[in-house]
Structures are given as structure tokens and as C-alpha cells.
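Researcher: Quick one. two chains, 801 residues in total.
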Amino acid sequence: MLRQQNIIRLGVIMAIISWLVTLGSMYLTRFAQIHSGPMETYQFFSKVFLVIFIISIYLFYRNTTGNQGGFNITDLLWRVFVTGMVATIVSLTSNFLLNLLRNNELSNNPYFIDTIYHINTGLITTFLIATFSVWKRLILYQKTKWLVRFWNIFEYGLLGSAFIFFINTQLLTTPWIIGMSLLTLLGLVLGVNLKWVAYLNFKQKWKSILLILLIGLYIGYFFIILNRYGDNNAIIPTFNVLSLGIIGELFIFTFGYCVYSILVILFNLPTTSVFEQKLVEVVNFQKLSQSRNTGQNEEQVFYTLLDSSVSVTLANAAWLDIMNEQGQPMQTLYRQITSQERKEVLKCIEKSGMKPIQSSVPARHGKQNRFVAELRHDSFKSIVVIPLFIQDQYVASIALLKDVNEGFSREMIEIIRTFINQASISIENHRLLMEAIVNERYKEELKIAKRVQEGLMPKALHTNCDLEISTFSKAAAEVGGDYFDTYKISDECLAIIVGDVSGKGTSAAFHMSQMKGIFHSLVQLNLPIHEFIIKANNALSECLDRTSFITIAYFIIDSEKKTFRFSRAGHCPTLYYSSQENQVKFLEDNGLGLGILRDRQFDSYVEVNEISYQTGDILVLYTDGITEAKNSKNEEFGYERLKWLLEEKANLEAHDIKEAIVQGLYDFCGSHVIDDDVTLLIIKVK
Amino acid sequence: MVEIKNHLENDIFTIFVIGEVDASSSIYLDESISEATKKHKKIMVNCQQLEYISSAGLGVFMSYINDLEDKGISLVIYGLSDKVKHVFQILGLDQLLKITVSEDEAKRMVNGIQV
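Model:
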């Protein structure tokens, strides 16, 4: 395949050469004619090269005329017009020259006349083919399969007609006439494809009419000029290009299309504004859609909506009420109207006894959700009010005004509706985005809180030589209200605490951190358990909110005396395995949660107990997250299951007991999520 | 989810707590008791249909203990299931609140008749 650039070059070179050869052949024919020699061969040559010339020009324009994806119609017309102008100027100049030299010998010189004629035909042919190529572009402006097929038939037919003379030089035979007539008819039928006209705006249409009119005039003028040369018998009849079928066809087709175009453009002029209006709608719609992507804020979207609605309905004035969350007007945007005039309009509506605007809009769906009315106002005669809803919330209403009666057609209202829908989506998206950003920030904050709380949990548990301790703790949310800690009071005494704050989540986590502070403050004082509990209650009474309390189980393990001393402040009863009795039981002593009684009354509810331990004894401290954990049948894990598990696993090491209980718990719950904080401490005497 | 109903008979105001009282629904229980303590001196809380109460729910009952004493209001909780009663007991609330089984008994208690 030849590259396009090469085809264009080849076309130009071929055109020049063939034009020159044709001219040479003409001279030779003329020479033969004057000297009565045989001229058929020269005539034949001149015709062959004329056809080559035509085809070269055709190839040139075929590859240069608006091949790019987008092209400007008036630019194309302008190019044809300029080509025509050049041809006309040359033609007029040559005619003028002939007239000027009328009495000169030169004007009677057949070679000179042949030259002038040949220059004219060259330019006119070029112009016709240029016009043809542009018309082709315009006809195929919106292609369909069948249109392209018919066009190809026409184009190849036309090219074919250039070669006809090879077969038969006698032109006026019946098949030839029929063929040419059919081709002409096909050209004229194809000429009705004038869709491009609709895409011109008003100004472009006028410009196009002018250009096409002038192109038409050129064509007419050229036809007359060529005819005159033929009639005058100044040239040898076989050189008359009009005798070539293709030239005649080109004249008819290009001129015909000129006439069509001018008529269609003229008739289209009055409806141009409608088409332009539609274009404005599309552009506005796009603007509203884009505002969704560019993350404009609500007010900007409202402004775009207001401006778009005004421009598509050609309203004289407009306002837009932005509502607050209660659906009451909060802010008004004005366009070509003052707040004073707005009040007047509202008063007009009230006076005329119509339903006020507000009461006619709340229903989101249904036909009544708009308000159209005629006004008795000096400047405005009609009004339309349409509300804007986002997720069934009344967010805004737009009012458009016109200075004529019945100024708003149903189409206009429908278009504003689509605009409003688009604006709703934009605003909704904007709100969702804002919400997402806020949520993201909360999440980040919670992550920080989680890290802080993880820092509050003991990193390493204190222990003594008698004990092995294993723990498990898991918050239901990012942060939780469970707490456990240990503290080595002396070489012999180890304090252990497990606590649970009422409620869940962040509030519980705050109280949990207070508990930690209190534990570490008090435990260092080496207080008797009784006093520890009372002081902790006093301290928490000042810290906790009205409905919060904390339950704790507090143990002091004395490795010298081999005792557990403990107190339960409303906490889940500790599970105790006695190796001597080989028995598991709950240590259900009395007690009251911390913060429940916030005065001295509390003191009397504190109870401290003591157990002597032996090797193999086990304490299981836990929070109600374990006993209240539910499975999909809504059954609780309960105290009994915990007891059974310990009975079964009592001979294992602390770590393995913990693993077994945690496993047992998760096996029980299955797919059901544990929605409370879970804490488990296993303390086993070595 | 919790459903709370009220019923006033003679001078006894009864609050029916139905369903589950968790951290979020405990607010309704709080509101309802708060309203009742403003207007009535004799309050019964019917927990026959209370299936579950979380620590936040217990916190609500707990927060009125001092209030009841100060204002001389008699509040009796009755009809607790074993499971729910156990929750009250573990926390020690059974030592501070008047809790009983049957409605009749609750009525006697709210009227100040010792059983």
C-alpha cells in the first residue's frame, strides 16, 4: 500500500505531467489538422491523458479533503470557494486577454486558443473535483452502511464513465444515455443527505448559504464558458471536455447539490434556535454531572442548577431556596431578581387565593410535586416551582419566573426535573463523601484509642515461684471495658485483679483506664483487701457517670502462707479447682459492684475470704463476656460449661487450660460473633 | 430490642420491660424510670418478659438506688427469670433493690407491707 502522502504527491505530479502531455497532444492534433495529416492517434492520446489528468486530480482530492476525524464544514466550503475563485480569476483574465488581443494576430492563432482553453479546462476540472470531494464529505457526514454502498456505486460509475470513450466514441447511443441518466438520478438521490445542515449554528448557516451560492455561481459560469468555447468552434470538437461524460455528470451533481443545500439551509434557519437550545441543555446537563465528579460543594451545585435551569427555560428571573434539616428555608440564591421582588411574587400567589408554594411540594413522588401558576405581577406573569429531594428529605426548591403567561411548557419542566435529579445525585454524593471522610477520621481515632488501650494491658504478668499464669483478652469493638492486671506487692504477695466496666466500647474503655490508675495507686499502699475495695469504690464514685459501675475480683496470693485472700465486688464468681478435693466450685461470696453505692453504706457489703491452696489448685478469673456468649440458637455459654471444661482439663498446665477453654468457647459460639469483651485468667499452683 | 409499656392502677405505676435491655436500649428504660420517679411514689417493674439485661441495663436500676431512698419512692422489681435474677445477684443489686417473684407479693411490698 502506498502511503497517503505519496499518493498525494503522485497525484500532483501525474496531474501536471498528464496536463502537459494532453496539451502537447492537442498541439500535434492541431498541427495535423492544419496540415491535413492523420490526427486520430494524437486525439486518442490527448483523451487518454485528459482522463489520467482527471483521475490524478481525483486521487489528490480524495486523499486531502477532510480526512481527519473532525472537520469544520464552513472551512471546507471556504476551501472550495477559494479554489473556485482562483479558477474564475484565471478564466476571466484569459477571456479578458483574448478580448484585448481581438485584433491581434495572436488571438486567431489556434495554438494560443488551445492553450487558453486547456488552462481553463484544467482549472475548472480541478474545481469541480474539489467541489465533488467536499460534497462527498457532506453527504457521508452521518454514514450508514447502505449510504456508503450507494455512494460507492455512484463514485465508481462516475469514474467508469470517464473511460467509456475507449469503447465507443459515439456518445449518443441509447445504452449510454440510459446509463448516464441513471447515474445522474443516483447522484441527485444521494444529494438529499443533508444532515450536516442541522449541526450548523445560525451564523454558520448564513455563511454556508453565501459560500454555496457563490460556488453555484462559479459552476454556472464555468459551464457557460466551456459551452461558449465549444459553440464557437474555436477548438477541435473532440477536445471539448463537455463531451466527456464525467465532466457533464460533475456539473449536474455539484450544481444540484448546491441548490439542495441552499434550500435546505434556508428552510432550516427558523428552527436553528431550537437545536441550539437542545445543545445548551446537553452542555448544562454535562456541567451538573461533572460537578459530581469534581467534588463541588453544595452551594456550587445549587448555583449550577439555577443557572442551567434559567438558560434552558429562558426564564427572566429565578431563585432557589435552600432548606435546613427541618425543611424550612435557610438561604436563598437569586438570579435577576431582588429579595423585595421575591416577596412581592410570594404575596401575589397568596393574594390570588392559590395554595401557597410550600404546602404543594412535600410529596416526593406523584405528579403534584410541582407548582405552576400564572401571576398578576407587574414584571412576572408565570412561575414554576419544583422541589429537590435527597433521600426523601426536602432540600431545596427552585422557582423560575417569566414575563409572559404560560411561559413554561411541559418539556421545559421535564428538563428542569432531569437537572434537579442530576443535582440531587451530585449533592447526595457530596454528602456521602463528606460522611465517609468523617467516618474515616473516627476510625483513625479509634485505631489510636485501641493502641493506647493495648498499652494499658499488662505487657508482662508478675508472678511468683508458686504460680503459672496464662491470660486471654479480646475486646468486642476496637476498645473495650475489660481489665486485668497483676502487681507484686512483696516477694511473697502477688495482687491480681480482673475487672469489667458496665457498658461497652469507648465509654467503658475510659472507665477501664481509670480503674487501672486506681489499682496501681492503691495496690502500692499494701492495704488490706477490705480497705482496698472501699477506697477503690470511693475513688470511682467520683469518677464514674451516673449509670456506670465496675465489677472486680481482687486476689492477693501469699506464697509464704500458701493462701488466696480475695474479695468479689459484683464480679462473676471465680471458679476454683481444689486438687485435694478434686472438685470445681464457684467462689460465691457476697459483694457489690464498685460505684453502685457511692457513700459509706458500701462498706458493709465488702466481704473478704481466704483459702489455703495446694499444688495443682487452679483459679479461673473471667468476665461475663464468656458466660454470656451466645450461639446461633441464642443459648448462653453459661457457668456450667465453664465448670465442666475446667473439671476436664484440670490436670493440664495453665496455658493449655486457657487454650482449651477459649477453644471450647469459640466452638460453642460457632459462626455467632461474640459481642462482648472477653477476658480469661488461669492461675495454677505449681 | 426492648419494649416498654406503662400501666397505672390506683396509685401503683407499673413499668413492663419486654425483650432485651442492652447498652443501646437501656436509654429507654432509663427514660421510663426517670419519668415514673418524677410523678409516682409506688412503682413496680414487671420483668416477666425480660429476656436479657446487660450491665448497662443494670446500671440504670443502680443509678436510682439513692434517688428512691431520698424521695421515699417504693420500687419493686418482680417476675425475673432465673437467669436475669442471677445477673442481679452477682452484681449484688439484690441486696439493694426490692426484688420479688409474683405480682401480688410485689404489690404488698410496694404498699409497704413487709412479707
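Helices of chain B lie at 26-39, 55-63, 65-71, 82-91, 103-110.
Researcher: Thanks, that's what I needed.
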